[in-house]
Structures are given as structure tokens and as C-alpha cells.
Design goal:
Helices cover 80% and strands 0% of the residues. It is mostly helical.
Length: 200
């Protein structure tokens, strides 16, 4: 009986010890969970504070950048429109101006260049461009007349494009002549366009 009582006491003490350890472990787990929740809550609060600080800055900066871009675009567009209008007005004045003595008529130059091809460039164009182009034009015309009729008719769509371009070039030659008083080149380097009267 004494041994049985001692065994029961030992089993009870062991059960109590296990229960105490279990309760201690549960308390530790609860404590760790509470600590983790507190850390998460603190982290969330910090993130909210950072977001709250950044929002006013972004709200202030984004509209300014957009307004600045719009102002720049508006200014560029306005200055470009004014510059284009000025050039158009200047060109309109040149076109309406009647040629004085020593000047070339852009109407005559344009019509002659459209009807005769590069031969019309000889009126106001640069000799270095008009003479070779006229020679090539005459050779091409001679070849075209020697071709059969159906082949000659095939060149008609090409002429419908080339002749108006030639007329525009002739008109530009005359306008440049009236601006500078000398024959100017249209094709080639910009520095080589302005030629001396003795080397046209």
C-alpha cells in the first residue's frame, strides 16, 4: 500500500510537472504571438506614416511637372506658329510683289519650267544646275521620241509628276534670284548655293 501510494504520488507529481510545462509552453507561445502581432502593428503604423508623408509631396510635384510640360509645349507650339505665320506672310508679300527692273517673274519662271521642264530653269536658275539638267532633258526627250508610241505613252504618268515639280523649282529659282540678285543653287551644300555673279 505504501509503494502504491508512493507510485500514485509520483505519477501525480509527473502529471503536474507535465501540465506545468505545457502551460508554460502555451504561455510562451501566446507571448511570442502577442509580440509578433505588436511588431506587425508597429510596422503597419510606420508604413502608414511614411505613405501619409509622401502623399502631399507627390500631389504637389506631379501637377507642377505636368503644368510645366504643358507650358513648354504651349510655348513651343505658339512660337512655331508665329514663326510659320511670319514666313508665310513674308512669302505672300514676295509673291504679290511685282518684279522690278533686273528681277525675275516667279510666275513666268514657274510656267516655263512646268511646260518646258528644266529648260525653264535657264530663266532664273543656277547655270551649274540648269545647263546640265537641260542637256539631260533634251537627250531624254530625243530618246522618248525614238521609242514606239505605246512606250512613249507609258512615260506620261512620270511626266505628270516631274513637270509640276520642275515648275515649283523654277518658281523657287526666281524667288531666290529676287532676294539675292544672283542665280542661286537649289541642290547641293548650303555654302555652295550662294555663287558669285561671274561663277553662276
Amino acid at each position: 500500500m505504501e509503494r502504491l501510494a508512493a507510485l500514485e504520488a509520483e505519477v501525480k507529481a509527473d502529471a503536474d510537472a507535465q501540465k506545468a510545462r505545457k502551460e508554460a509552453a502555451m504561455a510562451k507561445v501566446k507571448e511570442e504571438r502577442a509580440k509578433a502581432e505588436a511588431e506587425k502593428s508597429e510596422l503597419r503604423d510606420r508604413q502608414r506614416q511614411l505613405v501619409a508623408r509622401k502623399k502631399p509631396e507627390s500631389v504637389e510635384l506631379v501637377p507642377r511637372d505636368r503644368d510645366d510640360d504643358r507650358d513648354v509645349d504651349h510655348a513651343d507650339g505658339l512660337s512655331g506658329a508665329i514663326e510659320l505665320a511670319g514666313k508665310a506672310n513674308k512669302l505672300k508679300g514676295e509673291l504679290q510683289k511685282k518684279p522690278t527692273k533686273g528681277q525675275k517673274s516667279w510666275v513666268k519662271s514657274g510656267l516655263a519650267s512646268m511646260l518646258l521642264g528644266p529648260l525653264g530653269w535657264l530663266y532664273a536658275g543656277s547655270w551649274r544646275e540648269a545647263v546640265p539638267a537641260s542637256a539631260i532633258w533634251l537627250v531624254a526627250a530625243a530618246i522618248a521620241t525614238a521609242l514606239p508610241a505605246f512606250l512613249s505613252w507609258m512615260l506620261f504618268p512620270i511626266l505628270m509628276v516631274v513637270m509640276p515639280l520642275s515648275g515649283i523649282a523654277g518658281a523657287v529659282y526666281a524667288l531666290q534670284y529676287n532676294r539675292t540678285g544672283t542665280r542661286q543653287r537649289l541642290f547641293g551644300d548650303g555654302k555652295k548655293k550662294q555663287l558669285k555673279s561671274g561663277d553662276k
